[in-house]
Design brief:
Blueprint (H helix, E strand, L loop, with lengths): L9 E6 L6 H17 L4 E7 L5 E2 L6 E2 L3 E2 L8 E4 L4 H7 L3 H16 L3 E4 L3 H4 L10 E2 L6 H7 L4 E2 L5 E3 L3 E4 L4 H14 L1 H11 L11
Parallel strand pairs: 1-2, 1-6, 2-5, 6-7, 7-11, 8-9
Antiparallel strand pairs: 3-4, 10-11
Length: about 210
């Protein structure tokens, strides 16, 4: 998906759910927030939960109150799906209620043209939605075999940090979400903004390897 520089404000919805991995969520979120501070009105970032009830992050270390629920959320231009511990992910993809609400909401927006950006094991959550079919995808190294097993119509890539399929972006484990977020703001706002964010982050491990 190509963007004119500052052509419009992009609504970026960050999905939150029980036991979500904190860095999966906050790493990319902070990249977009910092980019928006550098180039105002580029992004409108917000969290979305199944309801507006607080959700607990991994190991119950903190609670996050979503900005919106699925019904009140503004139409997203991009949905960011952070991961969680593999045991929780495998439970979610068997959870009919989660499939019928959260995953249906993601699929409906994807079908309407919304970009989906998964971080770490977040790609595994999309198993069964049809979103991954026909795409090159990746995930955390711990779930690569399972991702392949559950998504035979997708091509699972190994040893890459992130994969850009235009409307679908998937990443490897945890910190790869920061790399992919930097890559995406580079596509939207240019390399100078990326360099400034990296400098603000004092980020020493900026990876540029990407598979299209």
């Amino acid at each position: 998906m190509k963007h004119e520089q500052n052509s419009k404000t992009m609504n970026v919805a960050f999905l939150v759910y029980d036991q979500v991995e904190v860095l999966d969520l906050n790493g990319p979120l902070d990249v977009f927030v910092k980019a928006n501070a550098i180039q105002p009105d580029s992004y409108c970032c917000f969290t979305v939960g199944k309801t507006k009830e607080p959700v607990y992050t991994e190991a119950n270390t903190m609670a996050v109150i979503p900005t919106y629920d699925l019904q009140t959320c503004p139409k997203p231009d991009m949905i960011v799906i952070p991961g969680a511990n593999p045991d929780h992910i495998m439970k979610y993809i068997q959870d009919k209620d989660f499939q019928g609400t959260v995953l249906k909401w993601i699929k409906n927006h994807y079908d309407a043209g919304t970009v989906v950006f998964t971080v770490c094991t977040g790609s595994m959550l999309l198993s069964g939605t049809g979103i991954l079919a026909g795409h090159d995808i990746t995930t955390h190294s711990m779930l690569l075999d399972a991702l392949e097993q559950y998504n035979p119509e997708a091509n699972v890539l190994r040893n890459v940090r992130y994969v850009d399929q235009e409307q679908l972006i998937t990443t490897a484990g945890i910190t790869a979400g920061i790399d992919a977020a930097l890559y995406l703001i580079g596509k939207h706002l240019g390399q100078e903004t990326v360099d400034t964010v990296v400098k603000i982050f004092e980020y020493q491990n900026n990876k540029t390897d990407v598979s299209h």
